[in-house]
Specification:
The structure holds 2 protein chains of 2 kinds. By secondary structure, chain A is mainly α. Chain A contains 14 helices and 3 strands. A 3-stranded antiparallel beta sheet of chain A has the order 2-1-3, covered by helices on one side. The radius of gyration of chain A is 26 Å and the shape is elongated. The two termini of chain A are about 15 Å apart. Chain B starts with 6 loop residues before the first strand and ends with a helix. In chain B, a hairpin with a 2-residue loop joins strand 1 and strand 2. In chain B, the strands form 4 sheets. Chain B has a 6-stranded mixed beta sheet, sandwiched between helices. Chain B has a 6-stranded mixed beta sheet with strand order 16-17-18-13-19-20, with helices on both faces. Chain B is α/β, with parallel strands linked by helices. Classes of the chains: A mainly alpha, B alpha/beta. At the A-B interface, helix 10 and helix 11 of A face helix 13, strand 16, helix 14 and helix 16 of B.
Chain lengths: ~350, ~525
Amino acid sequence: MSAVSLSPLQRAWARFQRNRLGYWSLWIFVAMLLVSTGAELFSNDKPVVARIDGQLLFPILNNPSEKALGGDFATPTDWKDPFITELLEKPGNWAVTVFNPHSALSTDYFTKAAPPAPPSAKNWLGTDSKGRDMLARLVYGFRVSIWFALALTLVGTTIGIIMGSIMGYFGGRIDLTLQRVVEIWGAVPELYFLIIFAAIFEPSLALLLVLLSMWSWLGLSDYVRAEFLRNRSLEYVKAARALGLSNLQIIRRHVLPNSLTPVITFIPFRMSSAILALTSLDFLGLGVPASVPSLGELLLQGKANLDAWWIIFPTFVLLTLTMLLLTFIGDALRDAFDTRKS
Amino acid sequence: MRSTPLLDIAHLTVRFGATTVVDDVSFSIHAGEKLAIVGESGSGKSITALSILRLVDAATTSGSIGFEGKDLCQYSEEQMQVLRGAQIGMIFQEPMTALNPLYTVGHQIGEVLELHEGLPKKAARARAVTLLARTGIPSPELRVDFYPHQLSGGQRQRAMIAMALACRPKLLICDEPTTALDVTVQAQILALLDELQREIGMALLFITHDLNLVRRFTDRVGVMERGKLVEIGATEAVFSDPQHAYTRRLLATRPERVVQALAPTAEVLVQGREVRVSFAQAAGWFSSTQFHAVKNASLSLHRGETLGIVGESGSGKTTLGMALLALQSLSGGQVFMGQQRIDNAERGPLRQMRKRMQVVLQDPFASLSPRMTVGQIVGEGLSLHQPELSREEHQRKVLAILDEVGLSEKNGQFGVLQRYPHEFSGGQRQRIAIARAVVLEPEVLVLDEPTSALDASVQQQVLALLAELQQRRGLSYIFISHDLAVIRAMAHRVMVMKDGDVVEEGETLAMFAAPQQAYTRDLIAAAHLA
């Protein structure tokens, strides 16, 4: 007997760590998530710090107007403007840029290559059809996809758990009624709904999140319901009732913690399906507005410019890699929570 | 000395990874002989039986298994498949899971015949009917087309026997064949096996933990302890003069009567008046019928008294217990806790009464939430009913009660509070469940088969603990069990239930000595209490 007792969750984590593929996939995924979340520090067309004519500037936080630097326009400084580049070449002037000195939205109007431009020393992965840096587009697009997927998974899982626990714990007439509601709701053609709403409203991430959440809980609630139906008849629930605990206390302390295995196991797979959902909607033009960088929009561009392989290929690789990582993590989680394994 | 044995096992060792489950076991069975292997759970008796048919996966096996002079360990998988079912049959413990629910009984028996004897479908079906008739299933022509779920537990086990005997095997291995059955059905199945064994002249290998059954039924007995065969010999010799210390301990595990005389002035604590419980059963699309689980049961329980409720599965004894705890709503009648009615109490008063009446359930593996520490499990009720306790007082109370049930540092259990249920054995878990109930200082405990899932020796310890707690705290028990030996050891009074009715009620020893009803007589006879 070990000196320190491991809780079931700790034991599951130990089993998860034993699956090397899943373990490293998790770390790579976390790294990708962190880099893309801090995308402004990774890829930005504004320098972090610059010194112009004895003035110390932090354009990444506060971009001065061109006029302030001696230019003609009152608009924020475009640091790729030949005027600025010349300014920076003067002695005593310098600028420190981030890793990739491009942003996802800015077009480089001063480059000689016609967009879409192939990879070069300046744009490592080339530019898209509007002359925007591909690497920057990918990083920012990934950020949108992943955070959207996280939010959608969180909302869908929460609603799914609540609905599933109500159906499973109370059973009987409540279960019967809600099951019929779920069936009817699940039969609503989701895609047509989305198309109609895309036509009525200005498409936005928030609207998409609301619309997709309305259906994303359906599948999970079935699993939670089944787990609750099984667990509520177990003897420790009976013992808890005999102790005088209220329904909410029993659900929270006894049934729910023991019913979470399918929920946790499914999270990575739900994430990947959420990413794919957003990507396909964007690809169809039903998704986020054109100004938002998105992987689906890149795929659409890639389809329109098949000769510009540097658009479609990296996007495809990034999507596949993300799906693979999530699948590996999901597999490892499933193994970790499999009680038949010691 | 007889001729060469039918089955001759020599130095059989089975390992799973680093753990040795069967350790150098040797024994032999002659044709027509009945050998029992007894032992407690984890002794390796089932694995020994399964290894004979080479049905153990992921294990390394060494030693030899001689069957009719040939070593089965050298057989290929194909050769084993020919042997299984035809030469060596097997019956499993749980007849519900051992039959495939998707096929009719006749189909499954016929399949064995088609496979091993090459019978055409029609002939196989006809043989299946004869076999079912032979095992005593009523109207076999009809039942041959039944699916397993349409048969009762006893009938399913009969169908399993018919299937195992289809090819007249020379050896039949029975792995706890009657453990899942009610006592009266058990007796019938054993009689059937006995009869068929004599008729076919096959050898029987019996795997069981039931010493009673061994004594009545088998010629020789082997005792296993932690993978080792510690003793083997003629049944009578082993029972009358056990050589090994473990065998003596095993034989001594018959429950002793520990009942204390009741004070004549003891007040009535719990009273059930004409309690009725029924469930709606779907009978069609829009109609439902009422299934009466408990029909008109009345009882009273005095302070410090143990009331035993016995009955076979489906008799309504557990439902009655749950109804008394107000965990099951009544369809008629009343339940009183002291002077207060509990069955229709409001939430607040009900919670107060819950404190006075606690429950210990059968399955020590299912009755503790696997994601809570022992400290949380035992302390949960305390924080609900006595939230005014400080952290230290709370912990002191939990530790005191764990000490009382024998789980403390004194007993070599360290850091119990922070440990999780999976780190404890079945008996220890049951102690935790008892601690959870007793920490609230209840007056009444409903014990629903508290020792049925435990090995005989552990069962003894738990019963002793319950008796001790009753004496020290003046607890009243409602002791629900199918095990008459346990009831006789523990109860002041007994209530016998059958199909939701109370058949007989009376003082324990008087009833066991002179049962009034035919059903009670059957039960007591089937239990073979010495």
